[in-house]
Amino acid sequence: MILYPSVDDLLEEVDSRYSLIMLASKRAHELDAGELPMLSEYESVKSVGKALEEVVAGDLKIKQD
Length: 65
What we know:
Helix 2 crosses helix 3 (47-57). The longest helix is centred in the middle third of the chain and has 16 residues, at 17-32. The protein has 3 helices and no strands. It is mostly helical. The model has no long low-confidence stretch (mean pLDDT 91). It has one domain. Helix content is 52%, strand content 0%. It is globular. GO terms for molecular function: DNA binding; DNA-directed RNA polymerase activity.
């Protein structure tokens, strides 16, 4: 269960829960592969939590084609 960031805060940045899950999952894989972090510090130690923090900070967005 995630406490921070809240699902409500996350859904303000992304259109749907499905899109949020896909975005966070892809970013978590990138972080696990050694990609540089977008934030200077994180509350979470896990890559999925870090990805969600990047979403709520507005640094991670879905590309619109």
